[in-house]
Amino acid sequence: MTTRDIPPSLTATIIIGVRNAGDGVPVMAERLLDAVSPPGIDAVVIDDGSTDGTGGALAAAFDGSPSITLVRHAESAGIAARRNEALRLARGELIWFVDHDDEWSGAGLATLLASAGEADVVFARADFAWGPGAGDRRLVDGIAEAEPRTISREAGARMIVDGTIHGFLWSKLFRRDVLGVDPFPLQVSQSDIVGVARAVEGAKAIRVIPDVVYVYRRQPGSITRSRTPDIHALASAHDSVLSLLGSFATAAERDTFTARFLCLASVNTAVRWGVPRPVMGETVRAASGWARPLDLRAVAGRSRPLAAAMVLLRVAPPLLPVALRTALGTLDALRSLRSRLART
């Protein structure tokens, strides 16, 4: 499928928030200019207070393009605020969020649009790449099914809660109406999944397709690589998702979501990025408190390893970071081996 295969009846807006893109501007600009070349496709690009000349470079790259709206700000307000702002400027009935430093194309958008039909949300698939080689990537979202299918809002909500579908924006297409006004909470992380949950909660039908439409590349400046992860943002996102979608899930699914998304993820993120000891202590204590009300039998029925982690948080909280360091070290070694084998 090419960028010219977009159904003529659909209009779409690509939204990009950019800050200090540096040398990445030319590649991003080339991708975007190609993606907006078919009729009915436009883009909103917001420069979130870049200090490296990104705003000027973007203005020069997009000069004369009627399909790209560029907004430049002198100060940073954060990606959530800029996405909310861009939505207010969007002209398309369908919205695709992308990041400037990942791999995407107009062909990916065409695939999403060809699958939209009457659906309010499209769930596609995405890759996560952490290195240059073919073995340095893995699928991080979506369902490996031979044929696309349409599901209900209730089924989509349960996919979010049970972790089948994640909160990444870029592997999904949204009808503008179901996103509502300012769908992304103004927090430094985890605003994405709240926006996804709001869209799913408002959807009448969701289309699930097996196509990979995006490659997320881990960058040194990624918010997830912060040495002081915001567990309060994680807790706020957790509460918002359950408030929006929890009624569509069983009690066991909700407890499993809390165990995975909140308890385990908070400690895992702290371990992965080597936070200072006081931050680790605060994180483990918070996770232990969140784990105590959970029905561990119900969690074990869905994931025994996850239930075991919750037992550690209850009876010996300091042991969970130790166990996770060991598990992550083993995982990294296996990934490195796979990458070497793929290169040879």
Label the CATH architecture of the largest domain: Alpha-Beta Complex
The fraction of residues in strands falls at: 15-25%
Q: In CATH, what is the class of the largest domain?
A: Alpha Beta
Q: Give the overall form.
A: globular
- What is the terminal-to-terminal distance? 32 Å
Biggest sheet character: 9 strands, mixed
Radius of gyration: 20 Å
Average pLDDT works out at 89
Number of strand segments: 9
Low-confidence stretches: 221-227
CATH topology of the largest domain: Spore Coat Polysaccharide Biosynthesis Protein SpsA, Chain A
H/E topology pattern:
EHEHEHEHEEEHEHHEHHHHHH
- The domain tally reads 2
Q: Helix segment count?
A: 13
List keywords for this structure.
single chain, 344 residues, alpha/beta, Spore Coat Polysaccharide Biosynthesis Protein SpsA, Chain A, 2 domains
Helix/strand layout:
Elements: E1 12-18, H1 25-35, E2 41-48, H2 54-62, E3 68-73, H3 79-89, E4 94-99, H4 106-116, E5 121-129, E6 137-141, E7 149-152, H5 153-161, E8 172-175, H6 176-179, H7 191-202, E9 205-217, H8 231-245, H9 251-272, H10 277-291, H11 296-302, H12 304-315, H13 319-343
Parallel strand pairs: 1-2, 1-4, 2-3, 5-9
Antiparallel strand pairs: 4-8, 5-6, 5-8, 7-9
Overview of the structural elements:
With 344 residues, this protein is α/β, with parallel strands linked by helices. It has two domains: 3-223, Alpha-Beta Complex (Spore Coat Polysaccharide Biosynthesis Protein SpsA, Chain A), CATH 3.90.550; 250-342, no CATH class. It contains 13 helices and nine strands. The protein has helices at 25-35, 54-62, 79-89, 106-116, 153-161, 176-179, 191-202, 231-245, 251-272, 277-291, 296-302, 304-315, 319-343, and strands at 12-18, 41-48, 68-73, 94-99, 121-129, 137-141, 149-152, 172-175, 205-217. Strands 1, 2, 3, 4, 5, 6, 7, 8 and 9 form a nine-stranded mixed beta sheet that branches. Strand 1, helix 1 and strand 2 form a beta-alpha-beta unit. Helix 8 (231-245) runs antiparallel to helix 9 and helix 11 (296-302) runs antiparallel to helix 12. The protein is globular.
